Amino acid sequence: MITYRQISPRDREYAGEKVLRNKVLRVPLGLTLSEQDLQGEDTQVHLAAVDERGQVVGCVLVAFPENGAKIRQIAIEEGYRGRGIGTQLMKSAEQVVRDRTIGSVSLHARLASRSFFEKLGYSAASEVFTEVTIPHINMEKCLVPPVKNV
After folding, report:
1. Which pLDDT belongs to residue 147?
2. How confident is the model at residue 145 (pLDDT cuts 50, 70, 90)?
3. Is residue 118 pLDDT above 70, yes or no?
4. How many Å is the Cα radius of gyration of the chain?
5. Beta strands 3-7 and 45-50: pairing type?
6. Separation between Cα atoms, residue 28 and residue 16, nearest integer Å
7. pTM of the predicted model, to two decimals?
8. Which pLDDT score, from 0 to 100, does residue 88 have?
9. 105 has which bridge partners?
10. Mind listing the domains of the chain with CATH numbers?
11. Which residue of 21, 27, 76, 94 has the smallest Cβ count within 10 Å?
12. What DSSP assignment string belongs to 9-58?
């Protein structure tokens, strides 16, 4: 059973979140999660998916730069992919953004993950660019329903 909760860098699960992010997002690229990567995380929202053993098996971070919202990182443990954990984390992240009355959210998607985000309603908002050594694309989603003219 997976439980979803908001955590902070002061919580026990934060160490597991960092291990997961490093394992999924950095090690395959020959990189390591650095202290620079972790700067400012105390002001960001951390959402975690935790299994019955208390292990963090999924996470998403949301930053709030200049009155906006940006999904910073999302990582799912390989053996847990395809179970809807990423979708649930993204929906929770979008609700956090809505709760702050911010009408849209952006993210830098790895090209390999583009279709995942498109299925969630995100649209490309840039040309392809390189970030952490691999191709990415900026994507955005409007979280405010369109006003219907009556």
Report:
1. 67
2. confident
3. yes
4. 15
5. antiparallel
6. 18
7. 0.93
8. 98
9. 141
10. 3-142 (3.40.630.30)
11. 27
12. TTSTHHHHHHHHHIIIIIGGGT----HHHHTTGGGSEEEEEE-TTS-EEE
